[in-house]
From TrEMBL:
Lactate/malate dehydrogenase C-terminal domain boundaries: 156-317
Part of the full-length chain shown: 1 to 333 of 543
Organism of provenance: Aduncisulcus paluster
Domain Lactate/malate dehydrogenase N-terminal: 5-152
The keyword Oxidoreductase belongs to this UniProt entry's keyword annotation: yes
Keywords for this protein: Coiled coil, Oxidoreductase
UniProt KW Oxidoreductase keyword: yes
Name of the featured protein: Malate dehydrogenase
Similarity section: Belongs to the LDH/MDH superfamily. MDH type 2 family.
């Protein structure tokens, strides 16, 4: 039996937390032979609810679950951590503009990044789910300068999976028949679902669907507005599909994507015309715990790719300079 890995889940008493914890404990993220110790971080008022979640996890008697720590202290949660799902975030409230949301969350991810820097393992890897995920991920990485930036990723896998789900439904095939889709950019309305290199049962998507008008119109709109449509129908935001996407993303990153293209928002590096400095979703393949960017021909979408990059640079520049250009962090780098 392998030694257990320490897996942090922030916002563990929330909706996504409730869906994701049994999946991690069952081996869906790190493999069927990898024991885990769950390090669950919540805000103080949610600790009682978290206790209830802990009781249920104990009652599941998962063989791979070798321990549970519940805390409201990031320094305890991230101590010797191997991996983290950063789900907890401050929700948008009535009257808040996006800039307020960014600033509020920047404070949370700054504190958690600083704790990671001090107490997590240097091989630590983090997937940021809490919104605005791309910019929260940037702040987290900036405050943990001794952890390689390639070890941070923001989640766009839900958008990726939604793209597959819509194509499979339209084509009347199963999701596993659809390969090679990806989503570029920010996890926001500016994202760019990309299907030009994708296939259904080995044939080009456009050929199988045979309806360019649907692809340019309803299909793209459905992907971009799916979160809102789920809130409207369910009265609550997506939780089971978000948790599933987080599991898929972490699993493929750590255990390998089996040669398949997946979407991951990783630190930009000049590829696809996006200079270094933001967490930007690109097509990747993963092997042995590392991702590699796949180069597809997206030249026809260049304007849309730039627009979603500009949005991320704007988030970085206009609201967050206090958090990102902290001289103490710059010195430590
Ligand atoms: P929720 O409101 O049910 O749960 C969030 C939990 O985070 C709460 O229990 C809250 O107490 C906790 N929390 C807040 N601040 C915290 C802090 N500083 N430290 C630790 N815990 C903290 O929300 P839900 O539905 O679980 O969603 C969580 C986040 O995931 C939201 O920001 C949501 O927008 C985002 N999301 C992202 C998606 C993506 O594709 N990237 C998809 C769906 C949701």
């Amino acid at each position: 039996m392998k030694d257990p890995v320490r897996v942090v889940v922030t916002g563990a008493a929330g909706q996504i937390g409730y869906s994701i914890l049994p999946r991690i404990s069952k081996g869906d993220a790190f493999g069927p032979d990898q024991p885990v110790i769950l390090m669950l971080l919540e805000i103080t008022p949610a600790l009682t609810a978290l206790k209830g979640v802990e009781m249920e996890l104990i009652d599941c008697a998962f063989p791979l679950l070798h321990g549970i720590v519940c805390t409201d202290d990031p320094m305890v949660a991230f101590k010797d951590a191997d991996y983290a799902f950063l789900v907890g975030a401050f929700p948008r409230k009535a009257g808040m503009v996006r800039a307020d949301l960014l600033a509020k969350n920047a404070g949370i991810f700054k504190v958690q990044g600083a704790a990671i820097e001090k107490v997590a393992k240097k091989t630590f890897k983090a997937l940021v789910v809490g919104n605005p995920a791309n910019t929260n991920c940037l702040i987290l990485a900036e405050h943990a300068p001794s952890i390689p930036r390639k070890n941070f990723c923001a989640m766009t896998r839900l958008d990726h999976n939604r793209t597959i789900g819509q194509l499979a439904t339209r084509a009347g095939c199963t999701p596993s028949d659809v390969e090679g889709v990806c989503v570029f950019g920010n996890h926001s309305a500016s994202m760019v679902p990309f299907i030009e290199a994708a296939t259904i049962k080995g044939k080009p998507v456009r050929e199988v669907i045979g309806d360019d008008e649907w692809i340019a119109g309803e299909f793209i709109k459905t992907i971009k507005t799916r979160g809102g449509a789920i809130i409207k129908a369910r009265g609550l935001s997506s939780a089971c599909s978000a948790a599933n996407a987080a599991i898929d993303c972490m699993h493929d990153w750590i255990c390998g994507s089996d040669g398949k293209i997946v979407s991951m928002a990783i630190m930009s590096s000049g590829k696809y015309g996006v200079p270094e400095g933001v967490f930007y979703s690109v097509p990747c393949k993963c092997k042995d715990g590392e991702w590699e960017v796949v180069e597809l021909d997206a030249s026809k979408q260049a304007d849309a790719l730039k627009a979603t990059a500009d949005e991320l640079f704007d988030e970085r520049k206009t609201r967050l300079s206090d958090y990102i250009f902290d001289p103490m962090i710059a010195d430590a780098r």
